[in-house]
Design goal:
Radius of gyration of chain A: 13 Å
Helix content of chain A: under 10%
Number of helices of chain B: 0
Helix content of chain B: under 10%
Distance between the termini of chain B: 41 Å
Structural class of chain A: mainly beta
Number of strands of chain A: 11
Shape of chain B: globular
Strand content of chain B: over 45%
Oligomer: heterodimer
Order of helices and strands of chain A: EEEEEEEEEEE
Distance between the termini of chain A: 37 Å
Number of strands of chain B: 11
Strand content of chain A: over 45%
Radius of gyration of chain B: 13 Å
Shape of chain A: globular
């Protein structure tokens, strides 16, 4: 059974803190994604990675960075958290190059920045 | 460019049919998807349709695609309380790695 896990379900941080969100998948997928979900805006792609140590900017990369040192793990980093980064963060993975493959999503991390 | 739009909210009575609509702007989209997100959970794929198809049926779900109008719909027959969730349409375009999601439609099923 496919599994994408995220390190925390809920997180509360203060403005200016460095925040790490971890995502792990056990399906040996090449592609991994980070989205944020906000009411009325749907899912917006922050970054994605199609291979170890490779990353590509999504639609809203500002204020974020990512790390993919191992195939199964994709980390999202907020260098200096701000209140407008309060959101639900969703990680997903997908096998490469097959359009009929779905993205498998983790349960999400609800981050609140005070 | 790519922009996927949905109405934000839909309320139906249990046993009725639900129709959730989606419009997209990228005519080069190859696959279109419907995802379901239950409260407190991630997204799960419900169904998908290839862009050269008009319709796809899967048990209680019917997907209709009007490529001329760039309109996608999801019909849920005999809607149940367990269908209450947020439904996202999404399109695959601009290369196989790019999936653009709609804003999501929250479906409320009234017993």
């Amino acid at each position: 059974d496919v599994k994408v896990t995220q390190s925390s379900r809920y997180l509360v941080k203060r403005t200016g803190e460095k925040v790490f969100l971890e995502c792990v998948q056990d399906m040996d997928h090449e592609n991994m994604f980070w989205y944020r979900q906000d009411p009325g805006l749907g899912l917006r792609l922050i970054y994605f990675s199609y291979d170890v140590k490779m990353k590509e900017k999504g639609d809203i990369p500002e204020g974020y960075s990512v790390s993919r040192e191992k195939k199964e793990r994709f980390s999202l980093i907020l260098e200096s958290a701000s209140t407008n980064q309060t959101s639900m963060y969703l990680c997903a993975s997908m096998r490469q190059a097959l359009a009929t493959d779905t993205q498998y999503f983790g349960p999400g991390t609800r981050l609140t920045v005070l | 460019g790519e922009d996927v739009e949905q109405s934000l909210f839909l309320s139906v009575r249990e046993g009725d049919s639900s129709v959730i609509n989606c419009t997209y702007t990228d005519s080069s989209s190859t696959y279109l998807y419907w995802y379901k997100q239950e409260p407190g959970a991630g997204l799960q794929l419900l169904t998908y349709i290839f862009s050269n198809m008009d319709m796809k049926q899967d048990q209680r779900l019917t997907v209709l695609l009007n490529k001329k109008d760039k309109h996608l719909s999801l019909r849920i027959a005999d809607t149940q309380t367990g269908d209450s969730a947020i439904y996202f349409c999404a399109e695959l375009s601009g290369g196989y790695q790019k999936v653009t999601f709609g804003t999501g439609t929250k479906l409320q099923v009234i017993p």
